[in-house]
Each structure stands twice: as structure tokens, then as C-alpha cells.
Amino acid sequence: MPKDNKVKKEKKHFFKDFKAELKKVIWPTPKQLVNNTVAVIVIVLIIAVIVFVLDFAFEKMNTYGINKLKSIVETTNSVEDNVNQTVEITNTVEENTETTNTVAE
Questions:
Q1: What is the spatial distance between Cα 6 and Cα 62, in angstroms, rounded to a whole number?
Q2: pLDDT digits (tens, 9 = 90+) for 41-74
Q3: Alpha-carbon distance 61 to 51, whole Å?
Q4: CA distance 27 to 19
Q5: Within the chain, how many helices (H) and strands (E) appear?
Q6: Distance (Å, rounded) from C-alpha 82 to C-alpha 94?
Q7: What is the 8-class DSSP label of residue 39?
Q8: pTM of the model
Q9: If we measure between CA atoms, which residue out of 97, 78, 98 comes closest to residue 86?
Q10: Helix (H) or strand (E) holding 29
């Protein structure tokens, strides 16, 4: 039973201290509250616009960069394909020349 009394006293003491601390708080006036709220909303909106603009800019730079890389890779692949075709044609011509020379002899 003594424990129950101690717990009750602690709870009463806690709420008494809590109420005393709330009386010490300096609450803002309605005008200050409105001014602070407006300031917070404006700052949040400004930061949102900045983040949106940066996101859009980086997305465009990324898209341009990826398209530029694609065109470079496609050009490189096209050049390699042309080189491979040229080598194949050269090999075919050489084989035909050798066959012609062999038949002519």
C-alpha cells in the first residue's frame, strides 16, 4: 500500500510542476503568431520553388547528357560497323583475287 501512495504523490507533484512550468511560458500574441506563421509559409514556398527549379535543371542536363552519350555511342558503333564491312569487303575481294589468280594459272 505505501507504494501506491508514493506513486500518487509523484503524479500529483508532476502535474503541479507541469502547471507551474506552463505559467512561466511566454506565449506569443496573436499578431506575433500570424507574423511567424506567414514567415514560415513564405520560406517553405521559396525553398520549394528553389528545389523545383534545381530538380528541373538537373533533369534537363541529365537528359541532354544521356542523349549526347547515346549519339556518341551510336556514332562509334556506326563507324565500327562501317570498318567491319570494309574489312569484310576487302577480305572478299582478296579471296576472289586469289581464286582468279589460281584459276588463271
A1: 67
A2: 999 999 999 999 999 999 988 888 787 877 887 7
A3: 15
A4: 14
A5: 2, 0
A6: 18
A7: H
A8: 0.47
A9: 78
A10: none
